[in-house]
Amino acid sequence: MSSEWIDLIATDATNKACMQSEINQFIAENPDVEEVDLLLLDIAGNFFGKRYPIKELMKIADEGLKFPAGMPLMSVIGQAIDALGYGLADGDPDAEIELIPGSLHRVSWESEPRAQVMVRYVSDNDDSPFWEPRNCLIEALEYFKADGISPVVAYELEFYLFDRQRTEEGLVQPPIGQLSGKRDNFAVLNMDRVSDFGECLSDIKRTCLEQGITIGPVSSEVGLGQFEINLLHSDDVLNAADQCAMFKRIVRGVAIKHGFQASFMAKPYLDHAGNGLHLHTSLYDAEGNNIFNDPASEGGSSKLLHAIGGLLDLMPASLSILAPNINAFRRLKPENNVPVSPSWGYENRSVAVRVPNSDAKNQRIEYRLAGADANPYLALAVMLIGMHCGIQKKVDPGEPTVNLSTKAFGLPTDLLQALRLTEASEVLKSYLGEDFISVYCAQKRSETATFEAAISAREYAWYL
Predict the structure, then answer these.
(1) Neighbours of 214 (CB within 10 A)
(2) pLDDT tens-place string over residues 407-428
(3) Per the domain annotation, does 285 fall within a domain?
(4) CA–CA distances in Å: residue 116 to residues 40, 77, 346
(5) What is the phi/psi pair of residue 159, to 5°?
(6) Positive/negative CA dihedral, 250, 50, 112, 166
(7) pLDDT in tens, 274-332
(8) Within 13 A of 112's CA, how many CA atoms are on the CB side?
(9) Which residue range is the domain that position 27 belongs to?
(10) Among 375, 328, 365, residue whose Cα is nearest residue 345
């Protein structure tokens, strides 16, 4: 979805016209497709929706459709959650949804060809849900729009491929290479590993192109069966987030097609590297100038430094969004190839906020703290909020870290502690609304309580 689409959906009439044209073109070009999946991402980062005969899609575009309003509040395993009276106690009311222009694409990794299209809850009336993650990113972008600033963003995601057969203990194990017939090894950036799983990785790339997602480099990472694929920088921020969400769906789907299980779980192995989500952001003024390249202070741009300062200030309160579950906090440990403090530096991959070496036009910030299982809309939203607040308040980030940063300090160490900081954050409540922050924290507490309400085999072994 290009930036022109944003202007086209300014009115309902234009939105319908765009979708009708898109649907007609898709059906003409894909006569073998009989079904279409309507998809929306929930807070936990999972897609929910419904499958319809594609012949009904035009009617949906013209007349609209309703989904249960509480669906974005589902737990990570798809259980309905009652969060502060929303989702169950309110009677589970319906809310209007509409199709998102530019998101209708072919799905080729399933048993038969299908289509998929992204949808959003209509947010122009009091009955519409305010907790949809995509709407949170829209809210964050409005602050930059009001200031005449345009972000350019890119996502980097790490993921694991696993053997679909578990160990005798029910644990995951590394995948067997498609060429070698051997289990994957540790060698980082090893091209033999990329080749060994090349059939699957190349199919991921082809499927991304089929869905309008242009990807960058593919590399093998530190973990057994771990890879990273970069999405390209985009000035259409909302579309970039949509593509990141769809990319995760593509990786999982194509992996199954090739006999693997793919996961963006933050820490699938305790003794191997976790999966990170790195966010790159530049900011441009109305004339197209990179505002991070304003040499107003020695050592860097004042706006660059203030944006970093805002990120560091907001980092403890936003960690429950960047590390949104119990497993995500297993990744945030020292000596784990992950930042563990509100730290920043130039060309330093051990810090949370890195300033890569770039030319004047492309000066950017890389935020390295989030796990790959973080919701792509919410993770980017809190990054943008931190940067915007830092620039507005001219927050000083302090001195950059020059050496390796491995000492853990300044961040909550578990999800419940992180949620308390999120709930108390005036910045997050100001930008995203007190209602959303309260509902988000209630949803996460409910999910955590359900997770902990079980006795594991180890608990019997230790305490029986």
Answers:
(1) 11
(2) 999 999 999 999 999 999 999 9
(3) yes
(4) 11, 22, 41
(5) -150, 160
(6) positive
(7) 999 999 999 999 999 999 987 655 556 799 999 999 999 999 999 999 999 999 999 99
(8) 7
(9) 3-129
(10) 365
